[in-house]
């Protein structure tokens, strides 16, 4: 099954609510703090901020995109109508995150391949780390890595997506470094 | 995807003159097509290719061969002209393209119980092909206000799900559907099938449409129309009588067992536990499903998470272990349950058993992590 990378990006942007403008991250703006978390951003990247999502890209959202999203526990997974809770196990969270991703595409993403799904330490909590792959409309393979964790306040999802060929591995470490800097 | 949608748009948009459209009589008629119809066929063939390229098809050659055998029993004079393909989609749908390509979803197949029921669906779709319903219907779509809405939907939302829905929505009018039901029924009877299964096919699906509050006009159409079709089939049965014909329960199970279990897993992956409960809470469900299906029932209760569901889930996992002791996931499920209920010893025993039965489990890292955290609790 194939999905449009453009549609996916557009969905991301629409989901992010009141999008403002892209701002280049410089040394003075590296330490980003929102109401629910703080994180160190990569310098030279562009960031776009909205109500509950922070989007980052270096060369354009079709080439690589990192998003950080906070969602409260109530109706966390909107498409599948599920809440999260602080008592959820990382594997349960991972299962719901994958279900939500599939449900967000009208074709259910049958081309989706889960390459790995393991526990990971994030901001002092144990969460999940999922690496997956799918095909776009044009047959372009895209890789996605998602790390998620819950605390008393809600669910945090850090997602990195880029074309499998060349881009994904190139900026993967930047994404990992960013996730390691997360503080709740 | 865009190519697929364009192909669909061509199928919908191509105008055709209002000459009398006569049904085909045999496979030979497929080589005597009018120019306009040839274009329609060409578009359908392009659509076939796109569906295949887009990884939409369920790759089970044996199942496809079985379904084509059923189709051949129903339409022997069209040998080679009608193909049956299975779409890997959990929704309840089936549709016919004008070139004789019949598609049936895994979701639909998973709900049917025997060969007579799947033959009901295939016989119905076959009439759409032999009687050239796509061609007839497209003219009326072109002239209807509904067309604009439909076309907007297709072009506005790029997804093959829409294409499939649209094939059902705009494929055929009420009159043509009635014609397909009536002629399909006669085909069913002529092929020696148990015709009493025809209304049963629709009754199962009506129950699902009601329970899940499905309002999309799938193959089986919207709710009131579905009831009407059940009545029509019951009338046909009373007119023509039952024949003590072939039901084909065992043959059907043999070819669909794997698919049915996979569908349960697919529904759970999509968090669609309601569908799993509808399938497995049926009185005779476990006559059709292997004992490991108790695990899926337990998972559906766990995901629904209503009052009493935890106990129901635990009972279902335990039943799965009792009846299918080599099926690993039931042990993992109980391990998680005991871990969450502060019984680390019991939890660890179940996790050990799980990994023993499934050493290459894809979630091994999680289980090892849970085991390590249980150690610190003891």
Question: Can you give a write-up of this model?
Answer:
- The complex is a heterodimer of chains A (184) and B (378).
- Chain A is of the alpha+beta class and 184 residues long.
- Chain A has a single domain (5-180), classed as Mog1/PsbP, alpha/beta/alpha sandwich (Protein Transport Mog1p, Chain A, 3-Layer(aba) Sandwich), CATH 3.40.1000.10.
- Chain A contains three helices and eleven strands.
- Chain A has helices at residues 5-15, 90-103, 164-180, and strands at residues 2-3, 23-24, 31-33, 38-40, 46-49, 53-57, 65-72, 113-122, 125-136, 141-150, 154-163.
- In chain A, strands 1, 2, 5, 6, 7, 8, 9, 10 and 11 form a nine-stranded mixed sheet that branches.
- With 378 residues, chain B is mainly alpha-helical.
- Chain B folds into two domains: 2-240, no CATH class; 257-377, Alpha Horseshoe (Serine Threonine Protein Phosphatase 5, Tetratricopeptide repeat).
- Helix content of chain B is 66%, strand content 3%.
- In chain B, a hairpin with a 4-residue loop joins strand 2 and strand 3.
- In chain B, helix 3 packs across helix 5 and helix 9 packs parallel to helix 11.
- The model of chain B is unreliable at 1-19 and 143-171 (pLDDT under 50).
- The interface between A and B is medium-sized, with 33 and 28 residues.
Mind sketching the topology for me?
The complex is a heterodimer of chains A (184) and B (378).
Chain A (H helix, E strand, L loop, with lengths): L1 E2 L1 H11 L7 E2 L6 E3 L4 E3 L5 E4 L3 E5 L7 E8 L17 H14 L9 E10 L2 E12 L4 E10 L3 E10 H17 L4
Chain B lengths: L1 H12 L21 H19 L7 H14 L8 E5 L6 E3 L4 E5 H6 L3 H16 L2 H10 L2 H12 L3 H10 L4 H17 L6 H15 L11 H18 L8 H21 L3 H8 L4 H4 L4 H12 L4 H15 L5 H12 L3 H14 L6 H14 L1
Parallel strand pairs in B: 1-3
Antiparallel strand pairs in B: 2-3
Helix pairs in contact in B: 1-2, 3-5, 5-9, 5-10, 9-11, 10-11, 12-15, 13-15, 15-16, 16-17, 17-18, 18-19
């Amino acid at each position: 099954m194939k999905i449009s990378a453009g549609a996916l990006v557009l969905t991301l942007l629409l989901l992010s609510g009141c999008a403002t403008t892209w701002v280049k991250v410089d040394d003075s703006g590296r330490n980003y703090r929102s109401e629910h978390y703080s994180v160190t951003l990569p310098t030279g990247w562009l960031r776009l901020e909205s109500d509950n999502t922070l989007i980052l890209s270096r060369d354009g959202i079709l080439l690589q995109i990192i998003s950080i999203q906070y969602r409260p526990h109530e109706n966390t997974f909107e498409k599948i109508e599920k809440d999260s809770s602080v008592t959820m196990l990382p594997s349960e969270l991972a299962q719901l995150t994958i279900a939500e991703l599939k449900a967000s595409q009208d074709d259910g993403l049958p081309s989706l391949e889960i390459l790995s799904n393991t526990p990971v330490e994030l901001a002092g909590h144990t969460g999940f780390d999922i690496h997956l792959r799918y095909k776009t409309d044009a047959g372009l393979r895209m890789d996605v890595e998602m790390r998620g964790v819950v605390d008393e306040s809600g669910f945090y999802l850090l997602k990195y997506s880029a074309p499998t060929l060349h881009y994904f591995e190139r900026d993967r470490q930047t994404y990992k470094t960013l996730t390691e800097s997360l503080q709740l | 995807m865009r190519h697929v949608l364009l192909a669909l748009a061509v199928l919908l948009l191509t105008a055709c003159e209002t000459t009398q459209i006569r049904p085909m009589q045999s496979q030979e008629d497929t080589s005597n097509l009018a120019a306009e119809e040839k274009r329609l066929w060409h578009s359908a063939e392009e659509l076939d290719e796109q569906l295949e390229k887009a990884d939409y098809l369920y790759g089970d050659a044996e199942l496809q061969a079985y379904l084509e055998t059923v189709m051949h029993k129903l339409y022997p004079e069209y040998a080679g002209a009608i193909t049956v393909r299975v779409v890997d989609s959990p929704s309840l749908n089936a549709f016919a393209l004008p070139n004789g390509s019949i598609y049936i979803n895994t979701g639909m197949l998973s709900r049917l119980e025997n060969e007579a029921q799947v033959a009901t669906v295939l016989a119905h779709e076959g009439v759409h092909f032999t009687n050239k319903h796509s061609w007839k219907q497209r003219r009326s779509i072109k002239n209807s206000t509904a067309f604009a809405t439909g076309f907007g939907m297709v072009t506005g939302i790029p997804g093959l799900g829409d294409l499939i829905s649209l094939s059902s929505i705009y494929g055929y009018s009420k009159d043509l559907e009635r014609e397909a039901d009536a002629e399909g029924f006669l085909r069913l009877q002529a092929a020696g099938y148990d015709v009493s299964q025809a209304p049963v096919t629709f009754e199962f699906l009506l129950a699902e449409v009601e329970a899940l509050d499905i309002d999309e006009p799938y193959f089986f159409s919207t709710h009131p129309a579905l009831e009407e079709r059940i009545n029509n089939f019951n009338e046909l049965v009373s007119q023509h009588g039952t024949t003590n014909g072939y039901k084909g329960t065992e043959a059907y199970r043999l070819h669909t067992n794997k698919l049915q279990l996979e569908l349960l897993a697919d529904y759970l992956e999509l968090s669609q536990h309601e569908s799993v409960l509808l399938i497995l809470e049926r009185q005779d469900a476990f006559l059709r499903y292997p004992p490991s299906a108790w695990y899926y029932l337990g998972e559906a209760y766990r995901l629904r998470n209503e009052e009493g569901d935890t106990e129901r889930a635990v009972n279902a996992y335990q039943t799965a272990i009792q009846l299918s002791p080599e099926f690993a996931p039931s042990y993992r499920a109980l391990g998680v349950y005991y871990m969450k209920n502060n019984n680390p010893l019991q939890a660890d025993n179940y996790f050990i058993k799980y990994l023993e039965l499934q050493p290459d489990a894809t979630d091994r890292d999680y289980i090892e992590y849970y085991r390590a955290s249980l150690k610190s609790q003891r």
